[in-house]
Fold this protein.
Amino acid sequence: MSSLCAAARAPSALAASASARLPRASRRAMVVCAAQGPAIMVNSCTGKMGHATAEAVVRAGLTLVPYSLTGESEAVAVGNVGVSGIPVELVGPEKRQQAIEKIKSEYPDLVLIDYTLPSVLNGNALFYCDNKLPFVMGTTGGDRDKLLADVKASGNYAVIAPNMGKQIVAFQTMMELMAEQFPGCFTGYKLHVAESHQRTKVDTSGTAKAVVKSLNKMGLPYTEEDIEKVRTVDEQVGRMGVPEQWVDAGHAFHTYTVTSPDGSVVLEFKHNVCGREVYAEGTVDAAIFLHRQVKAGAEQRLYNMIDVLSAGAMR
Ligand SMILES: NC(=O)C1=CN([C@@H]2O[C@H](COP(=O)(O)OP(=O)(O)OC[C@H]3O[C@@H](n4cnc5c(N)ncnc54)[C@H](OP(=O)(O)O)[C@@H]3O)[C@@H](O)[C@H]2O)C=CC1
Ligand SMILES: O=C(O)C1=N[C@H](C(=O)O)C[C@H](O)C1
């Protein structure tokens, strides 16, 4: 395995022009800061979120580890994938233990990011914990109770959240605060939740599930199974208003509608996202935050994105 550390650390044009405007001493401080940041391994760079996040790592001027765990088919068929001009070698499930030992020795300040699939996230989390590697888990679905229990039992550091977008996390926090401040405020009202995503999304939105938990506390009985998953193009474009270019490229349109018994009062909470960038940038913030907590030997080991936002750690 060869180190592509220097190439991966090359700052983006934007970061370079921003740093050029700073006094020399501050510029030096920025370079030291980037060199002291974590080296980040993104699993899997073959997926939509993994690829967008790996690009955000490079944009942030951090070290992108040029290896990525992926499914067997991609590893064998493709071999490597380019991220902002950096070739990233794909490692299939069979070879991952051997690979991670070498990667750990080459990048001691390693933080992993997981954007894979609901069907593999529990196994991946155990793998990260067994290897004592701090990780950010953006993948939704899977067995969430088991995920949290496994991480707690391992004493490993992790940030786990169904949504990494700062503005959406702020909305989630607001809903949770509203539930705490005004429990039962919607008693007797009805709830309808619709979430629209690209057709390849296999699970119900993890963000919608989290927001429903807050709405439950406000007196609205509703289950995860009640959430309407919109996955047909006609409905996405016609009813939800998704711009056509984002239908398959990746979108997340959520509407939570609360209606009084006689229909005279309607509240609608909505968050619509086109593309992946907002999550990718937030994921990098989470990785930097987690690395800082590891370095400080923080007592708390398990975090969510509300913790990251509350710590003022999102750029
Ligand atoms: N927290 C957040 O803010 C956000 C979370 N998400 C979540 O991220 C997840 C991924 O979404 P998205 O990128 O769109 O999905 P994709 O289907 O585009 O990507 C999933 C990737 O996982 C890879 N994979 C499969 N098996 C493994 C394995 N054993 N180890 C490592 N990688 C594997 C697949 O590779 P292969 O083809 O080889 O199987 C594929 O490249 C979803 O759960 C989604 O809900 C999405 C957006 C934001
Ligand atoms: O798969 C996606 O696209 C998204 N997944 C997350 C979820 O399940 O809530 C976050 C966002 O909705 C995009």
In short: The longest helix spans residues 277-296. Residues 163 and 207 are 6 Å apart (CA to CA). The first strand starts at residue 39 and ends at 43. The chain has 13 helices and 13 strands.
